[in-house]
Specification:
This protein has about 190 residues and is mostly helical. It has helices at about 1-15, 20-30, 35-60, 65-85, 100-110, 115-130, 130-150, 155-160, 160-185. It is globular and about 55 Å long.
Length: about 190
């Protein structure tokens, strides 16, 4: 259960105000079919989470507990740095003519490939040795970050203090990552 909750919260946090949410906003303005957009987001989120969790699960069998903790600490550090960095505008996929389901699914899958949430998911799966619950939690976290954007559109960005969420979240992840890393190295 720790893997599910940690993955859900970590992925939800690092996706706040990030490029996936910005792309989701652009797609929700472009397409009126909310159900297809939501289905595409869920498919992309769970596909990315599953791949990451499988990689982390395989990695957990090859490295020791301190190395797994160090990996998670590094993932938290990278996630924290990512939250503190300015967000670049994503490609809005205006040339894609494959409908809302495939555009949102493939577009978000490609955009999220290799981002902080994916690295965190792999590290959590490696640390907890529970790739199934990690994948479920990460998929839920990524989905929960984007689905409200479809439902609320720009009101989502107006109603939440995303700049402060990103700053405070970034600082918390940096502190937690540093503590984990130093602990894994025996320096704390």
């Amino acid at each position: 259960m720790d893997a599910l909750l940690l993955a859900l919260l970590a992925c939800l946090l690092v996706e706040m105000g990030d490029r996936c949410q910005l792309l989701t906003l652009a797609l929700s303005v472009r397409y009126r079919n909310r159900a297809a957009l939501i289905a595409g987001i869920i498919l992309a989120a769970f596909a990315n989470a599953t791949l990451s969790a499988i990689a982390g699960g395989l990695l957990s069998k090859t490295i020791g507990p301190d190395a797994r903790t160090l990996l998670l600490g590094l993932a938290f550090l990278f996630g924290g740095v990512g939250l503190l960095m300015p967000v670049k505008r994503p490609d809005l996929l205006t040339g894609w003519r494959i409908g809302p389901l495939l555009t949102s699914g493939l577009g978000l899958f490609i955009l999220a490939f290799g981002n902080s949430a994916q690295f965190l998911t792999a590290a959590i799966a490696a640390r907890t040795a529970d790739p199934v619950l990690t994948a479920i939690g990460a998929g839920m976290g990524m989905s929960l970050a984007c689905i409200p954007v479809i439902l609320l559109k720009s009101q989502f960005f107006i109603g939440l203090p995303l700049r402060w969420i990103r700053r405070i979240g970034g600082i918390l992840l940096l502190i937690a990552g540093a503590a984990m890393g130093l602990g894994a190295l025996g320096l704390l």
